Amino acid sequence: MKMKRFTLFALFLAGMVSFVACEKDDTKDLNKDEAQQQITNAEQELLTKSGEIVATDGYKVQEYFATQLPSPFYVKSDVSKSVVPSRFQKAYELTRQNLLLENPEIEFYFDYFLIEFFNDVKGTWTWAPDGWTHESTPTDKVIVKFPYPANNATNNVTITYYDFTTTLVYSETVPTGIKVKIEKDGNQVFSLSYSATITNLLKHSTKVEIAFGAFTLTAQESLDLSINNKFYYGKDFEFKKSGKLFYGEIADLTSTFTTDSTANVSITAKQIIGNLEFRLKIEANTSELETGNPNDLASLSLYTTSGDKVGDFVWVLEGEDWVLYFKFNNGEQVKAETLMPLVAERFNSFIDDLFSNLYAK
Predict the structure, then answer these.
(1) Which of 72, 246, 266, 302 is the most exposed place for a label (fewest CB within 10 A)?
(2) In angstroms, what CA-CA distances link 181 with 55, 97, 186, 264, 293?
(3) What is the mean pLDDT of residues 5-22?
(4) Angle between helices 32-55 and 57-67 in degrees, nearest 10
(5) CA 256, CA 283: separation in Å to the nearest integer?
(6) What is the pTM for the complete model shown?
(7) Between residues 359 and 145, which one has the greater pLDDT?
(8) DSSP symbols for 150-203
(9) Cα 17 from Cα 27, distance rounded (Å)
(10) d(Cα 124, Cα 144) in Å, to the nearest integer?
(11) Would you tell me how many other CB atoms lie within 10 Å of the CB of residue 227?
(12) Closest CA to 300 of 347, 361, 264
């Protein structure tokens, strides 16, 4: 992981979030072999879970619907579509980046489920060899029927969109809720629920809950710009299998402006990947973040979820780049992206996701 000297401020605001947790009395500092084993285990778990995810019926059906069939909605939506403020539109896709994990083959197509133009496409859409047919009933749901796999003799998959709600924000219609369920051969294989609490454009929160196979996912975000000279952003993301967390992100960022061009920034967060827990702490003024040494401004460490210390992260200036290194408890250092390529990729994605949320207009 590299960063130019002039991008320090942006990178820190992007999600170099503090991983603060209480340590347990029976914890220890792992030696190098133990640390490497924990990192290997986490990398392997990402690979394993990725394979399990794409093997579920829920995943396969939603992917097929989005990639192999023409959308029943998009032509209609081009003609009549709600005008949704971009920040709310972005919230509709908040889980998309996170669900990629480390596998580029994994994709969840939430733009096919979180349809803000629900009222324009109500009724039943049925797939036939020459395309979609549409009936105007029911009047309170959107139902889509198609065969899976493609050569199936009947339309054995049903997607139902229901409980759609909206509110007015400065005379614009904004979605505040929708539910989706996918049934294959009469069995539910996927469900999604989206809800939003909107005070105004400066203060709102969103929540997405998903279930498919043994997997459940909950993603929550909140934003508050309603207090003078202050900005708050929060995120809570949990991905579980059979009730056990295997990937999570918690982040809280507060920025208090001290002048027109500077602010005091406080960031706290946690990222869990398997049995690894990243912790980072930042309390600084933006003027320091612009030009300072990141090692003086941020404390980033790696622990197990049970509290054993795996090691620390340090930044090393190589030419014009600050490069992230991992330091074992014995003091030995190695580039983070070399030691833990998959884990480092997820950490970078976490940072990028926070950055995009913070700076979305």
Answers:
(1) 266
(2) 18, 21, 12, 44, 50
(3) 33
(4) 60
(5) 11
(6) 0.79
(7) 145
(8) TT-SS--EEEEEEEEEEEEETTEEEEEEEEEEEEETTEEEEEEEEEEEEEETTE
(9) 23
(10) 6
(11) 12
(12) 347
DSSP 8-state assignment for residue 29: B
Instruction: Give the integer Cα–Cα distance in Å for 13 and 284.
Output: 11
Question: Confidence band (pLDDT; 50, 70, 90) for 340?
Answer: confident
Question: Tens digit of pLDDT for each residue in 17-56?
Answer: 333 334 445 689 999 999 999 988 988 887 888 889 989 9
Spatial CB neighbours of 349, under 8 Å, sequence gap ≥ 6: 97, 98, 100
CB within 8 A of 43, min separation 6: which ones? 340, 341, 342, 343
- Would you state the structure tokens that stand for residue 39, as one six-digit string? 């990192």
CB 324 within 8 A of CB 335: yes
**Cα separations in angstroms, 30 against 158, 229, 275, 302, 309:** 51, 43, 13, 11, 6
Whole-number Å distance between alpha carbons of 246 and 43: 11
Helix, strand, coil fractions of the chain, as percent rounded to 5: 30, 45, 30
E strand or H helix at 2: strand 2-4
* Single-letter amino acid, residue 358: L
- Given this model, what pLDDT does residue 344 score? 67
**Cα–Cα distance measured from residue 223 to residue 357, given in angstroms and rounded to the nearest whole number:** 9
Structure confidence at residue 347 (pLDDT): 65
How many angstroms separate the CA atoms of 3 and 9, rounded?
Answer: 10
How would residue 3 be classed by pLDDT, with cut points 50, 70 and 90? very low
Which is higher by pLDDT, 32 or 273?
32
Question: Phi and psi dihedrals of 275, rounded to 5?
Answer: -95, 10
- Three-class SS state of 31: coil
Residues sharing a CB contact under 8 Å with residue 149, sequence separation 6 or more, in sequence order: 64
Q: Name, in order, each residue with C-beta under 8 angstroms of 23's C-beta and a sequence gap of 6 or more.
A: 307
